[in-house]
Write a structure and sequence with these properties.
Elements lengths: L4 H4 L5 H4 L8 E7 L2 E8 L9 H15 L5 E4 L11 H21 L2 E3 L5 H9 L5 H19 L7 H14 L8 H13 L7 H7 L2 H8 L7 H26 L3 E7 H15 L2
Parallel strand pairs: 2-5, 3-4, 3-5
Antiparallel strand pairs: 1-2
Length: 276
């Protein structure tokens, strides 16, 4: 794959983002003549009482008053959710994305999800010169952590481990060729500096939820796995900002609400476009 270096060099890597001070919410609101981007960065929430939902509704209403509907593109983070014609249910189930999508459908606005595909993400990260085993190990631990955190479990169960391996085997079509469990164990033993070489499942069973989080957390620098996580995030910022620039070049006005780190990390490329 060909990476556009102009975009890449104007993105802030996630591990540099953590050193920056920033407000919450964080707004990029740039104009070029009559063209506008309203890009709001927030902390994700599904709490109906969170004030940011009213802020989003008021901001989108004002945005609609400033532009013709056929000149507007609404960018949605992560995915386009199934429609439930109820404000509260859309927020509880899908957070900010759900609310914005509901308003967009009611107002008959064009919506677009700029997220990269799984293949695009993998190609991007591979181009960052990471070892394939390390990449798949990070994916495994990331999925595992999210499963445990979502189910509010502090310890692994055999079922969760098997479920995670099922996902990984679909991603790694050649997994039988290189003995994935042994390779994962080898890398984890090195990362955790285990004096006695343990099997992959022995290592996992000894880890706490906090330790699993630390291994995959893209915001910190603990091991090479964290850098891989940061590069997966960079892949998202690369493709999202690329699609934003594409729509801006088509003279569209963009309204978007994403996680705060994405907005801040993409700020330099958008400033460059709007010559700020």
């Amino acid at each position: 794959m060909k990476i556009e270096k102009t975009i890449l060099k104007n993105l802030i890597p996630l591990q540099k983002y953590t050193k920056l001070r920033h407000k919450n919410p964080y707004l990029l609101n740039f104009f070029k003549g009559k063209q506008e981007i309203f890009y709001l960065g927030i902390e994700h929430s599904r709490n109906l009482k969170n004030k940011q939902f009213k802020l989003i509704e008021e901001s989108l209403r004002k945005f609609l008053n400033r532009h013709e509907k056929n000149k507007i593109v609404i960018f949605l983070e992560s995915f386009i959710p199934p429609l439930i014609n109820n404000r509260e249910k859309m927020i509880i189930n899908f957070g900010e994305t759900g609310l914005i999508y509901l308003i967009s459908v009611r107002e008959k606005l064009k919506v677009f999800c700029p997220e990269p595909s799984q293949e695009q993400n993998l190609d991007f990260v591979k181009n960052r010169k990471h070892n394939a085993i390390d990449i798949f190990l990070w994916i495994f631990i990331n999925i595992l952590y999210n499963k445990l955190a979502t189910k509010k479990r502090k310890k692994l169960t055999e079922k969760i481990t098997k479920e995670t391996f099922t996902v990984i085997k679909k991603i790694i079509k050649t997994q039988k060729k290189f003995g994935i469990e042994k390779e994962f164990a080898k890398q984890l033993n090195l990362i955790l500096r285990n004096k006695t070489k343990k099997s992959f499942f022995e290592i996992l069973n000894e880890l706490t939820l906090k330790e699993i989080k630390k291994l995959q957390d893209p915001f910190i620098k603990f091991s090479k796995l964290n850098k891989i996580g940061a590069d997966f995030n960079l892949a998202r910022d690369y493709y999202i900002s690329k699609e934003i620039i594409k729509q801006l070049k088509r003279n569209k006005n963009i309204f978007a609400v994403f996680g705060k780190n994405h907005v801040i990390c993409q700020e330099p490329i958008l400033k460059k476009y709007f010559k700020k």
